[in-house]
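Pasting as-is:
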Amino acid sequence: MAGARPRTTPRTKISAWTPPVPGITEVFHAHFTDHAYPAHVHETWDLMILDAGGVDFALDRREHAISGADSVMLLPPGVPHDGRTATESGFRKRVLYLDTGVLPEGLTGGAVARPVLRDALLRRRIHQLHTALGQPGDAFEAESRLSFVAERLRRHLGTWRPREPGREANRLAAALRDLLDSRTAEGVPLHEAAALLHAHPAHLIRCFGQAYGLPPHAYLTGRRVDRARRLLLAGRRPADVATDVGFHDQAHLHRHFTRHVGTTPGRYAAGRPRDSR
């Protein structure tokens, strides 16, 4: 028919992976232009943010909608839900599937009652977590960011009030720094450090930040960069230095080294004076 608008061909673009971060069973990024989910359930919590578009969904037979840059959707395990695009252009979403070690099933009722959370800080923290999860080798940072996301979610569900650092802050911070210094190359998972120091992960990070002015993952990265500088000046190849100091690979070293030092590892090494003998 003359003047009729051509139909847009449905397009789907997805990426999915299992990160090396305890508590996250799957990361799922998707762009759908025309898709509807049938009613289904998950064994995990479904934590979603939208980067574009809007989604209409039903949870436990009650209708809801999510859109906007400051909203977060949290769907509990075992509760039926569906979903469909609410805009002609579709939607782009990023989802984390979290196991019940992050959020216990006992919090299901609160999530059913209010699955859409309008919280700009929570949304930003989830975005930062996705960014860390997308970088190979940044699992320690991702685990740290997950602890704050989980804490904020528990606060919304009415079961958590974060404890501010007290007299124990300097002691815990020093103990964590000693642990990171002793395991700079191999690293230490946050949950292991928290268990060893008998502290909640988020509280441990707060104590460290109060004492030293930066989060533990940033401190560890800085220590690794310092070690890399010494090895590069000693004539070691960047590819070997990367894994020796604890980076995932040469690209991981390159990214952090350039951000810290202002030049690439190769150029840094090339700038050292040569033996004139």
